[in-house]
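so im writing up the methods section and need the HAD family phosphatase record in one place, dumping it here so i stop losing it
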Amino acid sequence: MKFVFDLDGTIIFSGKPLSVSMTQALDQLIAGGNEVVFASARPIRDLLPVLPTYMHQYPMVGGNGAFVANGGRILSTIHFDEQTKESIIELIGKYKAGYLIDSEWDYAYAGDEHHPIRRNLDPEHRAENRRLEQLNELVKAVILHSEEPEQMLDELQQLPVVIHMHGSENIIDISPIGVSKWAGLQALGLQSQQFIAFGNDANDISMFEQANHSVCVGDHTDLLKVASEQVLADEGQVIKRIEQFANTWFY
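--- predicted struct ---
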């Protein structure tokens, strides 16, 4: 069976690397003949540092579906078209927004140096923090704060983009139209009803809707509507559930 895992808030917590105990639980799945796939809001660049080196070869979806990687290399990216790119940049200036903008590898960051996103950004210095105008293709945008946030959100919603709101962090996560975790998983060859998914947020809905079974970590209201079951947002409880699956024979 294929198991698809979101990262932050699902199998890693507080932005810390995958724990030894969680790593052992995933290894147990693999030892049982299953396959592990990661599907995160993080770009591949920021997904790698929280995983053991040998897991860098695993299939991955990053940027909520904008990045697809396997075997340790990025296979494809989806970026904003030029008009949408310019519109996003214009709105950033108009509303004096703080942001994290990702290209295929490098990024542009303008925000509080103590923001949680900044602390988790490229910790191994694999990429460069460039000026926004130096990024040729924009793959993903996160608005950290802005003046008149409701008005900015309203204008962003008029663009051909996919928006996810992360309420607890009060940020706006923007991807190109058509991007979703399920679209990324399809690019990796996954088929509907042929995998089990773990997630904790609205950006996991698309893959939960296609999963054979899905586990909501925590109590996200919208995700629970499409989840098969729920576990507490506690690492020990998540590990326990993974171990139960590891001891299950799948036909």
